[in-house]
Amino acid sequence: MNRDFLKKLFEGKGIDDAALDAIMAENGKDVEARKGAEADAKGLRDSLGGRDAQLEELKASAGQTEALKQQIADLQAANKAADEAHAKELLAVKVDAAVSSALAGARARNPETVKPLLKAFLEKAELGDDGKVKGLDEEVRKLSEGGDTKFLFEERGQAHSFKGLVPGEGGDREKAPQTFEDAVKAHFAAEGGG
C-alpha cells in the first residue's frame, strides 16, 4: 500500500498524517506477518527437499541388506510425518490470514478480541480453493449483527469525523500584516499615533 495513494484517496476528507501513519503501520504489520509465514513455508519445503535427496542417495548406494531397507523405510515415514505437520502448519497460517482479512473487511474494532469467538468454528474449518475459509463470512456476519457481539464491529457507513483547524483555511489572513514594517505601522495607527 502506497502512502501517496492513501493521501490522494483521503484528500479533503479530514484524514491527517497521524491517521495515515496508523493505517500504514497496521498494513505493514500484516505484510510482515505474511512475509514471515511465507519464509517459514519455504524453509520447510527446502528441508523436505533435502530429506528426499538423502533418501534417493541411500536407495542408490544401498545394497540388498535389510538394515538399509529399514533405514529407508524409517526415513520415508519420518518424511511423511514431516509433510503432514508442514501441511497442518501451512493450513493454520492460511486460515489465520483468511480470518484476519475477513475481520478487517467486517470492520472489527479489535480482531484479536474477535478471533477467540470463532475458535469452535475454526476447529472444523475447511480452506477453499480460493484461499477463503468456507462459511467464515457467514460466521463473521453473525458476530457483527449479534446483539451481544455487535459492539465489537464498527457500523457500516459510520464515518470518523475529525474536528479542528484545517491548514490554509479560515482566519483573517487578509487583514494580517505581511511584513514587520506593516505590523509596526498598524500598531501605531491603532494607537492614533500613525
Number of helices: 7
Strand content: under 5%
H/E element sequence:
HHHHHHH
Please outline the major beta sheet.
none
The coarse silhouette is elongated
**Fraction of helical residues:** 55-70%
Low-confidence stretches: none
**Structural class determined from secondary elements:** mainly alpha
E-strand count: 0
**How confident is the prediction overall: mean pLDDT?**
80
Number of separate structural domains: 1
Radius of gyration: 31 Å
N-to-C CA distance: 58 Å
Description of the structure:
The chain is mainly alpha-helical. It has one domain (3-156). It is 63% helix and 0% strand. It contains seven helices and no strands.
What topology does this entry show?
Blueprint: H1 3-9, H2 17-61, H3 66-105, H4 111-114, H5 119-123, H6 136-145, H7 180-191
Helix pairs in contact: 2-3
Task: Give a quick rundown of the structure.
By secondary structure, this protein is mainly alpha-helical.
